[in-house]
Amino acid sequence: MKRLFGTFGVRRVTNQELTPEFASKLATAYGTLIQGKVAVGGDTRTSTPMIKHAVIAGLLSSGCDVIDLGLLPTPAVQYAVRNYYDGGVIITASHNPPQYNGIKFVDEDGIGIRDDMEEKIEDMFFNENPKRVPWDEIGEVTTNERIVEEYQEQVLKRVDQESIKKAGLKVVVDCGSGAGCFTAPYIFRKLGCEILTMNCQPDGFFPGRDPEPIKDNLKELIEVVKATGADLGLAHDGDADRTICIDENGEFVLGDKTFALVEKQMLQENNGGLVVTTVATSTAIYDVAEENNGEVIATAVGDLLVARKLKEENGLFGGEENGGLIFPDFVYGRDAALSAAKIIEIMSKTKKTLSELVSKLPVYYSEKMKIKCPDNLKSQVMDNIATEISNDPSGYEVDTTDGVKIFTPDGWVIIRPSGTEPIFRCFSEAANQDKATEMAQWGISLVEKYL
Length: 451
Description:
- It contains 15 helices and 20 strands.
- By secondary structure, the protein is of the alpha/beta class.
- The protein folds into 4 domains: about 10-145, 3-Layer(aba) Sandwich (Alpha-D-Glucose-1,6-Bisphosphate, Chain A, domain 3); about 170-250, Alpha-D-Glucose-1,6-Bisphosphate, Chain A, domain 3 (3-Layer(aba) Sandwich); about 255-360, Alpha-D-Glucose-1,6-Bisphosphate, Chain A, domain 3 (3-Layer(aba) Sandwich); about 365-450, 2-Layer Sandwich (TATA-Binding Protein).
- It has a 6-stranded mixed sheet, with helices on both faces.
């Protein structure tokens, strides 16, 4: 069992567990396995420069050459690695609070590294036996400040710019003071949108709102959309790999709705194709695929798992229910900028509002809850729940691809331990909201029973 890595990378509280020494040692182990040119970039957290310099030092000591990309979104780093380098390290804690930071390692395709590589890194980390090269073989550091602009250009190339410019949509962009500040406002202005910005000044203290783009954190964006008569509100998380939308009425649009919307467009444009998602995603994704000559494959939770399956199966499109969409012809990872640009493109070409577009999608109701659980108890709790449900006389269908997903006549609930926090998450879906809430509460009660 892995001791450091979660769903994607390592996240810890800065200067408690995640110290410069910790970061450098971890990066040296990664560099020992890569032995090539490694790109390094990060988000706007106050600790990112400290952690980034420690990571660079570790990589150099293993003999790698380092290309410092500066502060930029996670998908921009993944784009750079896929096109130019042998590996990459992203300094980010994504949506976590400001005291956290993290280290994500990616392979030459820009996809999060595999479990076996993570295990090798942990072995070197704990046994303190990574490669340390002689003084005359230490790597060199260069910079590439062009990647942010190139990434923007590539996003623009992948949408119908003329249709968007003709539509002249008014868009409120809330980057949450994260890495999207360096890309999102510029991309949407170049597309001819009338842009109003919120929290678009980079600030690692995240003074305007918490970096996770959930409804409770976007109340101000909702009010601004309504007050200004905007066509759309867009919110990114800390490292700008997820997009959440607010429609023209100020309504929060769940991530699985925008996933289904873009999925429908992608399948229609390509006369069908393979869509990859996770076991925690809405049934609507399957419905849309069936209606548009598509096929769906489900993986365990984690965008790197979705990305890897897209590459293996030559998939068309993928994503998760949290607003993270993956366009494999561009980046093998969630991409907030292209997700938002595609949503704007769909609105522009159809000449319909976001609420109108969403109203045409299959309707399901969902609930998300979470409960604290120490990391050392997660496995035991999970095993007990799986055993109980398997022996339940109701005969519920169970999927243990990731956690325990329970299918009942009323809908489904998935109970799974977080890979980044000491919590369990319970997602549910049903034909009405009351039933979805009831099923999520049932999931929480099962965790409580075995804590």
